């Protein structure tokens, strides 16, 4: 059996007395698009930030192609991050920079120079997400929410990462724009042959993006399987969440 | 039991306050240490540095200049009126220049720039924290300590001596204008007396204070902005706390430098 691109074992994280991740086990295969679903406050973002090295887990293991990421520092961590692309929930575009500098930030690491070449690369990547060249010279504050998400997606893919992470990619967007973003994500992940890990509670988005879905609840992965089996999971938690029912094993206050 | 609780309550409150104060000082010192390390090690971002130098230096000139001009003039008036009580009106130029250069120039410029710059730095970094821009920067393999914090602290440390130099000159000019045009001092005598009483130590201590204040006010802004959290309210808290911290640090270090240089 081939080594998973990403392998998580026994991952735990607590903030004071609040246990957020309580032994997460998860594998993501090369080229697979995995979507993690779960209610608000179930630790989806914390899990993602642990993988990205933004939060240090209390215990457990995160392996990238068999290489341990937990505890990685300096150049080794930089090299691992060079393989990542991340789309943040709100876009997280840098207000102080024009769009084209945002899109090429992973290539320049904030350094100036090679302006014309970088502008050209930015325009190419903006075209991939359906944005016109004129957008390159705008400031993030001049863009609508949907355009900001597209620019953030262009930034995430600009350095051709092997693994893409998406944090609630459709939050705050109307259904039409959300569908456009979903289509773009699916299209770009396929075009790049990248592995993708998305966290969302938007089921339409999950069905659109995923090859496989995992449900996080109570700090653990309760179920995971192909997207085709989502409606016949046989798991009461998954059924309740997928169908958005207020009655079931998940209580409204369960996650704070 | 209730009596013991009542008796010890003030001590508990005092102890808890002292502990949190010490913890805060420790955190700030550790933050400063990490910031200095980021300032001294590559990669450096000269374009960010020049941008911050313009934002902190150039755009603070009007507020610093206005403050110094009015303070210098008011100071000359006060020294003149106070001096009349013991027939020492002629000390106006000497006392004005010493007070401006040694104390009022650096302290007032420090406080004014702190109000303007510390709050702006804190608000910007806190907003970046809340909107995940700082996390995004890390995932894009750029160290926020080197890209955001180091240029701001270096720029403030370099620009504050320039601003204080301007404040000193404009403050002395304010005193001169008031003394010559309102108090009927002779202009050339006023300037000659000013130059006679101005010593190299005064200028050096003034500029050293300025550099230290620049470091401190940018540090306070970066510290509260970078460590903020809690949404819009957190941004507001970071902004307020940065100004309060910068003011306290400036006044404390001003006393320390004054005692060290002029304490005898």
From TrEMBL, chain A:
Family annotation (Pfam families): ABC_tran
InterPro entries xref list: AAA+_ATPase (IPR003593), ABC_transporter-like_ATP-bd (IPR003439), ABC_transporter-like_CS (IPR017871), P-loop_NTPase (IPR027417)
SUPFAM superfamilies: P-loop containing nucleoside triphosphate hydrolases (SSF52540)
The ABC transporter domain, residue ranges: 6-243
Domain of life (superkingdom): Bacteria
Key words, A-Z: ATP-binding, Nucleotide-binding, Transport
Entry protein name: ATP-binding cassette domain-containing protein
Organism: Sandaracinobacter neustonicus
Lineage: Bacteria, Pseudomonadati, Pseudomonadota, Alphaproteobacteria, Sphingomonadales
From TrEMBL, chain B:
Transmembrane parts of this sequence: 12-33, 53-76, 153-183, 203-226, 238-262
Molecular function in Gene Ontology: phospholipid transporter activity
UniProt-listed InterPro entries: ABC_MlaE_roteobac (IPR003453), Permease_MalE (IPR030802)
Keywords: Cell inner membrane, Cell membrane, Membrane, Transmembrane, Transmembrane helix, Transport
Annotated membrane topology: Multi-pass membrane protein
Principal subcellular localisation of the protein: membrane
Cellular compartments annotated: Cell inner membrane; Membrane
GO cellular component, as recorded: ATP-binding cassette (ABC) transporter complex
Xref: PANTHER family: ABC TRANSPORTER PERMEASE PROTEIN-RELATED, PROTEIN TRIGALACTOSYLDIACYLGLYCEROL 1, CHLOROPLASTIC
Function: Could be part of an ABC transporter complex.
Family membership noted in the UniProt record: Belongs to the MlaE permease family.
Protein name: ABC transporter permease
